[in-house]
Every structure is written in structure tokens, then in C-alpha cells.
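thought: user wants a sequence for this fold. calling inverse folding tool.
action: design(structure=
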């Protein structure tokens, strides 16, 4: 399954916020110990106007001293008719400055009960002015 995270790290409609030091305005993705909360819309196509099928809700922590890795804990919460109420649970270390990042799918609920597999993330574009990133997520899972 391929889905697209519509990620806004700034502005009035931000879907990612820094929990540890939100007062300075700019997110500190490379600061060791920085913690972020996310609630990104997930769409079936790469266009922002594409049908929304899920939300990516969770946290991630910059967990490497040099800022190169984040530890990711994300629930993909499906809202479309086909999978509504089902989730995929993603957890693991993400090399945040690599072109393609891979993390584990460690579980799921509903239609994805007992899911196992992996997810890859690739940032397709980033607009500095609007703080908008388009992230492609390829999910490979086995479930019962």
C-alpha cells in the first residue's frame, strides 16, 4: 500500500509541533532530546486535494546525539470506508536525513489485526516558505 503524508511543520495549520521547546518558533529536528507530536493527514494520492484516508498520529524523538536519528511511534488511523477504525502501528529508529527511511510495522487493529512488516518513507518535496512536506509511505504488511 502506498499513501502520502501531508506534513505541515509550521504556520497556522501545523500538523507537527515541538513539545520540548515550542517557544522559539522553529522546530529543532536535529536537537538531541527534542520531542514532537504529529497528526498528519494521509491521502491516497500525492496531491493535497486527494482523498484523505487516514491520520498519522503519534510522537517522535530526536534520539541520536548528532541529531541524525529519530525514534518514531506513529499510529496510522484509517478513516476511509474500507478500513475505518483500523490502525497500523509503526515504531523504530528513522535515519531522518536519508533519502529513504525504513521502520517496522509492529502491529495493527481491526482489518490489520496482528500486522507485521515494514514501512519506507521518502520526502518527495519540501517547501521552506510554507513548511510543507510531502512524504510518500510504502507499507508492506502481513496480517490476519
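)
observation: tool returned 144 residues.
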Amino acid at each position: 500500500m502506498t499513501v502520502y503524508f501531508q506534513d505541515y511543520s509550521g504556520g497556522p495549520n501545523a500538523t507537527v509541533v515541538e513539545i520540548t521547546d515550542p517557544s522559539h518558533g522553529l522546530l529543532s529536528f536535529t536537537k538531541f532530546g527534542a520531542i514532537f507530536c504529529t497528526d498528519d493527514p494521509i491521502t491516497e494520492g500525492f496531491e493535497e486535494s486527494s482523498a484523505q484516508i487516514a491520520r498519522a498520529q503519534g510522537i517522535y524523538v530526536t534520539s541520536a546525539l548528532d541529531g541524525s536519528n529519530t525514534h518514531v511511534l506513529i499510529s496510522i488511523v484509517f478513516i476511509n470506508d474500507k478500513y475505518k477504525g483500523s490502525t497500523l502501528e509503526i515504531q523504530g529508529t528513522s535515519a531522518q536525513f536519508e533519502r529513504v527511511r525504513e521502520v517496522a510495522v509492529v502491529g495493527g487493529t481491526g482489518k490489520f489485526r496482528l500486522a507485521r512488516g515494514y514501512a519506507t518513507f521518502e520526502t518527495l518535496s519540501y517547501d521552506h516558505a510554507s513548511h510543507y512536506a510531502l512524504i510518500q509511505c510504502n507499507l508492506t504488511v502481513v496480517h490476519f
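thought: summarizing for user.
answer: Here is the designed sequence. The longest strand covers residues 116-127.
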